[in-house]
Design brief:
Distance between the termini: 68 Å
Order of helices and strands: HHEEEEHHHEHEEHEEHHEE
Strand content: 15-25%
Radius of gyration: 51 Å
Oligomer: single chain
Helix content: 55-70%
Strand order of the largest sheet: 6-8-9-11-10
Mean pLDDT: 78
């Protein structure tokens, strides 16, 4: 079976390439042969006419040489007729009155074979000065010229099909060699299983097929990465949801173990409050998971329906919603610089970004807590800064702080109810708006998250 043919199919591409190559070559050869044939016929005809003209010129030159010796035109022509004999043509002379000159003695015509037809008869002036009115008549056979033309036509008739057939065989072989990597890649693609790590064989990465195989392998790498990320996402989500669910089950089982007359109203109230807190945590995590699922669907593409808005107004509207939580945690939520700063983006996503950063700062601030939010307008960018007076983010954790489900050791010890999804959502929102986000040390003593977004032009 051909290396480019799959099981139960014919090598259609190879056949089409070969047929196209042979047909193209046939058209080119037929066109070239037609042009060459007409050119050769014209050349042979021109050479034949020049040859006949040369024969007449030879007679004229001979006449000029001999006329001084034989004195009269008739005597000279009689002598020339016996001396000049051509194999494939007959020389005759016509007098000024149009009669054919036969000479005073029998010409040596028996030694001249009869000319084969077709023939061409041409007349030329003998000599306008020495023999005024006399003409040389040349009868020349065209048989040799036509035979040569027929031989050339036979060469074209048999040579062109032979060349096309030879080229088709060579094209079939060459196309098979060229498309052989495609067959190998097709066979390898049929054996590739999801997340198997198997890739297409690439013989020469520098040619067109090699670049195609390389890009396809890169696509498989991205798909494997996406599958691995999805599996990790599902595993991490299940792990994060298992903990609050296990705590709720433990509380319910403990309540069921107690006798109804033992459990007081206060106990039931405490259990219900604990369950409500756990359900709120689970709801928050499910909401974050849904947000990340939407993020995976949208990717890092720019916001489709971006509008011009002022980030300082958005922050000013969002901060009052976090004041109750700040007061409950004993954290002072203050506003630093709040400069007028126009950006282009999605108001809902930017509000979510602000909320994620403020919530994260409230959770991990010090005791007593201090969280400061500021918006600054610079030449080309708008900078949103959220900082706290907590313990900050270790330098070793700053590379992974925006990864999904990542929580440093310090964060796990201080707050066990975190999911590690908020900062991943914040990073995705910033990327969709074409900005950057980073974390470094704050002057307050904790962490400082700095978001830089492109500044919208006026108008």
């Amino acid at each position: 079976m051909s290396p480019v043919a799959t099981e139960g199919s014919r090598p259609r591409i190879r056949l089409r390439f070969t047929a196209l190559y042979a047909a193209t070559l046939l058209v080119v050869l037929v066109g070239a042969a037609t042009v060459l044939r007409f050119a050769l016929r014209a050349t042979l005809q021109r050479e034949f006419e020049e040859s006949v003209r040369a024969s007449a010129g030879l007679v004229t030159q001979f006449f000029r040489t001999e006329v001084n010796e034989y004195r009269t035109i008739e005597a000279t022509l009689t002598h020339i007729s016996g001396e000049l004999v051509f194999e494939d043509r007959i020389i005759r002379y016509r007098a000024p009155d149009g009669r054919r000159f036969r000479g005073n003695r029998a010409l040596a015509t028996p030694v001249v074979p009869a000319l084969r037809t077709p023939m061409q008869s041409v007349r030329f002036p003998l000599d306008a000065d020495l023999a005024p009115g006399w003409q040389v008549e040349v009868d020349a056979s065209m048989t040799n010229m036509l035979a040569l033309q027929a031989r050339i036509d036979r060469w074209f008739l048999f040579g062109i099909p032979l060349l096309v057939l030879t080229a088709a065989v060579a094209g079939w072989w060459l196309t098979g060699r060229t498309l052989s990597p495609v067959g190998s890649m097709a066979d390898a693609a049929a054996r590739i299983a999801p997340a198997s790590g198997t890739r297409l064989p690439v013989t020469n990465p520098d040619d067109e097929l090699g670049r195609l195989g390389t890009r396809f392998n890169a696509l498989l790498d991205r798909l494997d990465g996406a599958l691995a990320q999805q599996r990790q996402f599902i595993a991490d989500a299940a792990h994060e949801l298992r903990t609050p669910i296990a705590r709720m089950r433990a509380r319910v089982e403990l309540a069921l173990l107690k006798a109804p007359d033992v459990a007081t109203g206060a106990d039931r109230t405490e259990i219900l409050r604990a369950l409500d807190a756990e359900l709120r945590a689970i709801t928050h995590q499910v909401d974050e998971l849904l947000q990340l699922a939407r993020a995976d669907a949208a990717g890092d593409e720019a916001v489709a329906h971006a509008e011009r808005l002022f980030l300082d107004d958005l922050v000013a509207d969002e901060l009052p919603r976090w004041q109750p939580q700040a007061e409950q945690l004993g954290v002072a939520l203050t506003v630093g610089a709040l400069e007028e700063a126009a950006v282009r983006g999605d108001a809902v996503l930017l509000a979510r970004l602000c909320g994620v950063l403020v919530d994260n700062a409230l959770r991990y601030s010090g005791t007593p807590g201090d969280v400061r939010v500021s918006v600054q307008a610079r030449t080309d960018v708008v900078v949103l800064t959220v900082e706290d007076n907590g313990r900050g983010v270790p330098v070793a954790d700053r590379v992974r702080i925006f990864d999904r489900f990542f929580r440093g050791e310090e964060a796990r010890h201080r707050r066990a109810d975190g999911s590690g999804l908020g900062l991943a959502i914040a990073s995705w929102i910033v990327r969709r708006h074409g900005g950057t986000i980073r974390v470094d040390d704050s002057e307050l003593g904790g962490a400082r998250f700095v978001v830089a977004l492109g500044r919208a032009t006026v108008g």
